[in-house]
Amino acid sequence: MGRKPSDVWQGTLALMILKTLETLGEMHGYGIARRIEQTSGDRLSVNYGTLYPALLKLEQEGYVAGEWGVSEANRKARYYKLTRAGRKRLDQAAREWDQTTEIVAQFFRPGEVS
Amino acid sequence: MRSLRAWWLRLLGFFTAAARAEQFDAELQSHLDLHIDDNVRRGMSPEAARRQALIALGGAQSVRQAYHDRGTLPSLESFVQDIRIAVRMLRKAPGFTAAAVLILALGIGANSAMFSLVNAVLLRPLNGGHLGGDFVGLYSGDRTRPDRFRPFSYPEYLDIKSQNDVFNDLLAESAARPGLTENELTRRVMAGLVSSNYFSTLGVEMSVGRAFTTEEERPESASAVVVVSYPFWRQHGFIPSIIGQSITISGRPFTIVGVAPQGFNGTMPVIAPDLWLPLGAASLLTDGQNIGPSNRVVNDRSAQTLLLAGTLKRGTSAAAAESRLAAIAASLEAAYPQYNGNQRLVVHARSRVAMGPQPRSDAGPAAGAAVLMSVAGLVLLVACLNLANILMARGASRQQEIAIRLAVGGGRARIVRQLLIEGLLLSTMGGLAALLAAWWAASRVMVALTEVLPMRIFIDVSPDGRAIAAVALASILSALVFALGPAWRLSKTNLSTTLKLAAPVGATRPRRVSVPGVLVSAQVALSVALLISAGVFLRASVMAASADPGFPLEGGLIAEIDTRMAGLDEARARATYAAILDRLRTLRNVDSASVASMVPFGLSQFGRQVTHGGVRTSSTFVVIGSDYFRTLGLRVISGREFTTAEEQDAAAEPIAIIDQILAQRLFAGENPIGQSVRLSARDQADELVRIVGVVARVRDDVLQPPDAHVYVPFGRHFGGEMTLHVKTDAGAEATMLEPVKAAIQSVDSRLPVLSLKTMTAHRDATPSLWGVTFIARLFVAFGIIAAQLATAGVYGLRAYLVTQRKREIGIRIALGATRAGVIGQLLKEGAWNAATGLIAGAVFAVGLIQVLRQTGMLYDVRAIDPLVFTVAPFMLAAATAIASYLPARRALRGNPTVALRAE
């Protein structure tokens, strides 16, 4: 389409992080960013200036927990993983997301609104 | 929930910012390393891999800032930053800071001290209040006479307790002042006479031992058991073996069965009892006395001596309770029409200041407290206006700093906030100093008060949460008053003129009505109003102290004794009194001696209704011995005194002596001698007495005009608690204190002399005189503080204006104006502020005094006392004149050419 990879919207980034952690289990910030970009087929680019504050916010809210660990390549990195509250939040958010997209989709389906 | 947790962590994060920044740096570094590894894996050269990774990361500093902002609360950070700046500003000006804190400490301290007292008496929760605040009194009214209330009899109490369904439990109480003998010494103590469920109704558990049993409550049980207070236990070293020990109360052995818990002060207002006795002990304490209301507790409906109280059941309002209790009143009325006719049961909150059979609201004391609080508020207002002026003047020198901040893009809101925070910092320091000063001052007042009251009181003036909150509120409000105005004006600085360093000549021409000028006038006005009020109270206290009691104080000496405390019954007590009077009358230097049931200016008074020929009036009732009027020095106008026979013989003919006031009311010009009047009182049998004498009027309260008195002989009216009056040769009274005491104790060594003092000392210690003197001192202190602040304010303003006009003054002198002329001009300008303030203040004072009259202490004082209304404004006028003159003189002292060349 000729457009640059768009920045992730606020709010959905938190959801993507949670979902990514659910898929990958433990992961560091860099890995999370790469994973989001890959999953979107490089249509999204994650801004690190928003990624780390978002991770900190999730940590403050108790949805993720961070801990220092060592990567496969023997690099020290801070690994994040979902907490039980985070898992619950993700389930709830996924349901809400389904609902919202369905409603919005209704508006764009021709001929079906009244 | 989640966002609250996050907010809390961010708040805590404020303190761990440095550690978090370090950790985040490590995290960013690892991020970079991982990215570089990735890039290398994709085949980039290490050099290129590193560059690409750095580009992708973007501005590391802005990432750090974003992370930092999320880790803490940015608004808190800038707030702390403002405080740091404020601290630095204040430390740079220690003189100003000290002055401002002192001014605020005085202003807030005046309020804080007043509030400590008000809080202690009117606001702290009552005993029993912890049960949910629905602890109420039950009162017996009369449906046909709404202002008439009476206590309950014991059988009535039992009926209401068992029949009602609105109280969780209902307690009955009365009070007694028995003697407590320890180590050969007997002192009078305050005791609660209480029902067996008293402690459980109040939700109180004994520290050790037990409460009273229902058997001990039974009036005929003569139960010699006692519950002692926690302080009593402490005095005895907390010995566990105190339970079961015997103590001597009013000459009889009582067994200690329990110790009340710490902090429990019973249910009497302000007074803390030392002991509690069961209702069944009342019969052990009373003698045959028939002077005042007895505290007889007997199983007889005519003996109405008990006060009832209890906690209402949850969800029951006072009104609902009253309508349920009406049915009980109706059934009591049907069963006992003689005692319960027209009975109305009233549920009402208990008073914090008075204890009695009638329900009382504390609106009167609350209004008085509000008046005193507002007067203290005026002092704080003067302090704030003063400080506002100082800040404005200081602001003039800070205008450049502020202009620079505005010029480089500082927001006006941020600057106002900065100045407000400086103000808050000052008022917080002032408030803390005030809190300590007020605690000290209020404790001193309490100590002074205990000296005039003969019992243990528990007015706790130590700062509690409420007092601290009040000081915090006063600090914040005063910061708003003194800092907001100057902050607003200063931040309105006109950039272009201020940044050019000096103001042009003539730009500072003073306007007659300027904001600082109005502030100074307001200070003068408020402080002159306070000084005038102080003067009025001083007049009142002087008049009270010099009020003619109706008899000379010189040579008078009084000793209070109570034969019940030595356990004497009526016959032995009478013999003892006769022997003591005999002994006293033969002492050297003693002119005469007598005995009376009350002393003028004393704390207790008993009354009787006096009826004659259809006229009914109430009168003070005094039981006296022979020679009483000669001993007191009160003139017998017609008829005679009582004889020694009448002093001693219980079967003598019933006679009385009345004073002029009663004679006027009942006989209006007719000769009262030989006539008969009827004396009646609730709880006593009526008595028809023949009048044998008329005496001069006597004053019982320094703040009230003399009232009617009826005197009856000691022979027919016995009481164990009497005061011995002794008249010594003029000037010898102070030296006779010891011989009088020795004479009393030579008759019965166990008999405690409860108080022994000269009549003059007694009058000086009377509570109403103490009260008016205390208020006068308080107002003088407030007035002086305010006047000093106002004078300093005038000085500050004049000094500032004169400094600003140095050049103008220099030009005038250079052009040939005389020094006197210039000083006159400057003084005239200052006089205008002072004069408007003085006039406004005097007018305000007239209104203020009308309000202060509500305290009932300004008896006999004119609303506009010419002396006070002259002296107080004159003092302040002189002070402000000096305050205006000094800066003017200083301005002229320098060489005018120096001022002219200054730029």
Compact overview of the structure:
With 114 residues, chain A is an alpha+beta fold.
Topology:
The complex is a heterodimer of chains A (114) and B (903).
Chain A: E1 6-7, H1 12-24, E2 27-28, H2 29-39, E3 44-45, H3 48-61, E4 64-70, E5 76-82, H4 84-108
Parallel strand pairs in A: 1-3
Antiparallel strand pairs in A: 2-5, 4-5
Chain B: H1 2-13, H2 17-41, H3 46-57, H4 60-71, H5 74-92, H6 94-123, E1 135-142, E2 145-150, E3 152-153, H7 154-163, E4 167-176, E5 179-182, E6 185-188, E7 191-194, H8 198-201, E8 208-209, H9 214-217, E9 225-228, H10 230-235, E10 246-249, E11 252-259, E12 275-278, H11 282-285, E13 304-312, H12 318-335, H13 337-340, E14 343-349, H14 363-407, H15 412-452, H16 465-490, H17 495-499, H18 515-546, E15 556-562, H19 570-585, E16 590-596, E17 607-612, E18 615-624, H20 628-632, E19 636-639, H21 644-648, E20 655-659, H22 660-667, E21 676-680, E22 687-695, E23 709-713, E24 721-728, H23 737-747, E25 753-758, H24 759-764, H25 767-804, H26 806-814, H27 819-852, H28 866-893, H29 896-901
Parallel strand pairs in B: 7-12, 9-11, 18-23, 20-22
Antiparallel strand pairs in B: 1-2, 1-13, 1-14, 3-13, 4-7, 4-13, 5-6, 5-10, 8-11, 9-12, 10-11, 15-24, 15-25, 16-24, 17-18, 17-21, 19-22, 20-23, 21-22
Helix pairs in contact in B: 2-3, 2-4, 5-15, 6-14, 6-15, 6-16, 14-16, 14-18, 14-25, 15-16, 18-25, 18-27, 18-28, 19-23, 25-28, 27-28
